[in-house]
Design brief:
With 255 residues, the chain is α/β, with parallel strands linked by helices. It has a single domain, classed as Rossmann fold (3-Layer(aba) Sandwich). It has 9 helices and 9 strands. Helix 1 runs parallel beside helix 2, helix 1 packs across helix 9 and helix 3 runs parallel beside helix 4. The longest helix is centred in the middle third of the chain and has 29 residues. It is globular and about 60 Å long. The model has no long low-confidence stretch (mean pLDDT 95).
């Protein structure tokens, strides 16, 4: 049986206060990593850090100076920074344009488009660029980025989110090429419908439809995504670079 050992590794999990981020922080801590939980939600983030004997830092990934300061604090406290899980993300769904009886009644706002890109793309850029110098100095690093099944196949009503998650895949592939020579790998994980607080808040009819469209006929568990991150962060995955791993129960949107 394969055991994932992250003993001696130092990991940062953005958006670690809930959902997949919370599960990832727990799995990494259980595997022996020292975990720093980053979140704008101080209550949730501190609770997770307390549960796993980790450390909480209130970090807004859209705030470049705050990100750089947090990275410096991690390195000062732990002496290194080995793994970055770019998990933080937001959703602001709307149709590009919505017509009713031939009249335009709604459209995605520029503010909602920008908000999603600010967190889901630029935040990933900020955090990665801030940690890479330390990883280069160590000659070792793991960059793990949260994409989504919709970043591969698109989804109705999610122009901003789909474009952002496709953008994350593109950045991942670029960084795999640029950073591999420094002992740093970059990979993305593309979850499908996962049993998180966000999923549980949708109407039952829609939730049932999600399950019906997933070949294994259930929602994924946050721990299943977290376990994938843990494998990619381990030395056993040292030759996996630039990959996009779907954790989606076989789902292909639109089929």
């Amino acid at each position: 049986m394969m055991q994932i050992d992250l003993g001696g590794r130092v990991a940062v999990v953005t958006g670690g206060g809930r959902g997949i981020g919370k599960a990832t922080a727990a799995v990494f801590a259980a595997a022996g990593a020292q975990v720093f939980v980053w979140d704008v939600d101080e209550v949730g983030g501190r609770a997770v850090a307390g549960e796993i004997d980790g450390k909480f830092q209130k970090v807004d990934v859209t705030d470049r100076p705050a990100v750089e300061a947090a990275v410096a604090e991690v390195v000062e406290a732990a002496g290194r920074l080995d793994i970055l899980i770019n998990n933080a993300g937001v959703i602001r769904d709307a149709q590009l344009v919505k017509f009713q009886d031939g009249e335009l009644v709604e459209q995605m706002s520029e503010a909602d488009f920008d908000a999603v890109f600010s967190v889901n793309v630029k935040g990933v850029f900020h955090c990665t660029q801030a940690v890479v110098p330390q990883m280069v100095a160590q000659g070792y690093g793991r960059i793990l980025n949260a994409s989504s099944i919709v970043g591969l196949y698109g989804n109705f009503g999610q122009t901003n989110y789909v474009a952002a998650k496709m953008g994350v895949i593109g950045m991942t592939k670029v960084w795999a090429r640029e950073l591999g020579k420094h002992g740093i790998t970059a990979n993305a994980v593309a979850p499908g419908f996962i049993e998180t607080e966000m999923a549980m808040s949708v109407p039952e009819k829609i939730l049932s439809g999600m399950v019906e469209r997933t070949p294994v006929k259930r929602l994924g568990k946050p721990s299943e995504v977290a376990d994938t991150y843990a494998f990619l962060a381990s030395d056993r995955a040292g030759f996996i670079n630039g990959a996009v791993i779907s954790v989606d129960g076989g789902l292909v949107l639109g089929t």
